[in-house]
Amino acid sequence: MSKLWEWVDSTEYLRPQAEIAAAVYGAAGSNSNGNVTHTFTPPYNLDLPLEVAELIIDQISDIYTLRNMGIVCRAYVHRCRTRLFHTIDLGDRFMPGEQYYRRFRNAMARYPTLRPYVRDLRLVDTAPFGSAEFLTASHFSARQAWIAEDESVCELLDSLPNIRAFSLALNKNALPGTGAPPMGMYRTNWENFRLSIRHAILGQAKRPQLYSFSLAHIREFPAPLLVSLARVQHLVLTDVHLRDMPGSLQVIGGVAAISAPRIEALTLRATDLKLLMVMNDILRHHRSTLKMLTVIGIDSSTEGAVNPEVVDQLWRLLRLVAGTLQDFDWRPTTRNVDAALGPPRPIHLGILSQLRDFRFIVNFHSNSKIGSNATALTSPRGPFDQLLLLLDQLASESHYRYPAPPSIPNIPAVSLLATSLSAQGQTPTPVPSHLHPAFTYPPPYESFTSAAHSVLEALTIEVMFMQSIQLIATSAAWECLDRFLSGGQFDVFGAPENLDESHDNGDTERGASNGKWTQSAAEVQLYPEQSPRRFPSLRQVVFTSRRRTSPEMKLRAREILVEQLPRCRARGISIILEGDLC
Q1: Are 519 and 572 contacting, i.e. CB atoms less than 8 angstroms apart?
Q2: Bias regions of kind Basic and acidic residues — which residues (predicted)?
Q3: Which of 48, 147, 475, 506 is 20 to 30 Å from 279 by CA-CA measure?
């Protein structure tokens, strides 16, 4: 700072300004040459506390900015490295996966001090999209061989001590112009991996600090190894196909060998039928700890038709975790011209009595003339047709008891395990505390009525649209959703009532803070409280989007969305924008 003031004082053009500054900030003095020097005292201290600087660094996502900050100040090095190397994603569409991996491996070998900063490692096998090596099945197989045979992967994983999230995703990109990978190359066989690499990958799930474990696009995965993953808090399984289907007794033995099953979040995408059956066996034989469930694209098979066996197993899973599930994200298979469909029958969301957060997709770009959704879009509910049906299930007072699995006797599960061990000449081990001591398979299900209301607190709607005008072209549908969420005696599945009130004329501004919009005073008077309310605990409606749009379109969409649901806003429900809409 002193050099800055000396430069100001030595400049002919700025000397008058320096004299003014001296009069304001400090007194003038003289040196040995008789020249007047000015000593300036800044009005405030420009040194930021390290805690404040670290908070600023935590909000920076640009890699080059973080790198530059770590270079210019030694005090920022640790925080910048924590941000830079926290997540290492080796998936790059414009670089071969092997080359990307080797660059990272060499960096870790050359700079071992960087290893503790890696917390999330995503090992991905990719190739440049549209490159020559991607055009033939032979090159496709050779390109994937490195990840299954390069034993340096074992050394790399052992050298990273602080990994809390691990992901292994194999390539499933499409051939240019075909829309599908080469025949027979959809997944990589688990048996093709070297034994040491398999042990190193599964060994990550045994780390005490590991929080998330993800597998994608793998076939012939052994079912007993899936049981060993029950100790992970967040388990993500994408297009994983099992090799065999073990018996229930084998699953019980595997669960009993786990010290503390702790699955709290489960993500299933394009799931195999066998995998769902094993997951049901795992969740059936210990107290459910599952709080978050994400289901992506398992409502239909590869041919586009509903797979009844998969749906039945998913329905069984929902019944097993109904008492603990608090967050449910349903992402059906949908395209730009099709409306998103809810879970097929017999799945009924009324069983989720503890659900706090529900997420669903609403496609405003769906074409009523294409596909099987044409009849749904002709109703006044428009794009909210499926969402309102699911919300009606959540608001229903009908719940269900668990059904007994077929071909399994109604005897304690622990007795089954003891009988199996005795038949093999083994001594039954003490029952772990996480197993129900007196657990019995429940009788066939029956419905019953509960007086409790829905405890839903947040509704997240992922909007799909091409143009902002599509968001306001369905005013009747918005009216149906608003009336349904706000309560009252409105029959959402009947003809919508026309608004006879005059809307806010804009004289009163709506408050906005941190992306949350609340009601204005005029709206409170316009829409008084009604009872009963279907969702008395509802506090926020979140709109999000993963489709990247232009800034102008995004701004227009924000303006439209925050003006919707006036009755909900009048009851204190906040409208929040997330994702690409922020």
Answers
A1: yes
A2: 500-510
A3: 147
Q: What is the SS3 assignment for 177-188?
A: CCCCCCCCCCCE
- Tokens standing for residue 430: 């003490």
Beta-strand ranges (E) seen in 125-246 are: 165-169, 188-189, 212-221, 234-242
Helix %, strand %, coil % of the chain (to 5): 40, 15, 45
Look at residue 250 in the predicted model and tell me its pLDDT. Answer: 58
**Residues 201/168, Cβ–Cβ less than 8 Å:** yes
SS3 assignment for 240-272:
EEECCCCCHHHHHHHHHCCCCCCCCEEEEECCC
The residue assigned the tokens 């991905």 is 124
CB count within 10 Å of CB 6 equals 14
pLDDT digits (tens, 9 = 90+) for 318-377: 999 988 999 999 988 766 667 788 888 888 898 898 999 999 998 887 654 333 444 444
Rg (CA), the chain: 30
Interval 391-423: pLDDT, tens: 988 887 554 444 433 433 333 333 333 443 344
Give me the sign of the Cα torsion angle 12, 17, 21, 23: positive
Gap between the Cα atoms of 352 and 123, Å rounded: 35
Nearest to 400 by CA among 337, 463, 442: 442
Locate 267 and state its tokens: 């993500």
Contacts of residue 374, Cβ cutoff 8 Å, sequence gap at least 6: 368
Go through 267-292 and write b for each residue having 16 or more CB atoms within 10 A of its CB, e for each that does not.
bbbbbbbbbbbbbbbbbbbbebbbbb
DSSP 525: H
The residue type of 273 is: L
The answer to whether the pTM exceeds 0.90 is no
The answer to whether the CB of 510 falls within 8 A of the CB of 559 is no
Measure the CA–CA gap between 479 and 205, rounded to whole angstroms: 48
Say how far apart CA 91 and CA 317 lie, in whole Å: 32
Domain positions in the chain: 2-38, 458-495+509-581
Question: Distance between CA atoms of 321 and 342, rounded to whole angstroms?
Answer: 19
For residue 375, list its beta bridge partners.
Answer: none
- Are 228 and 260 a contacting pair, CB within 8 Å? no
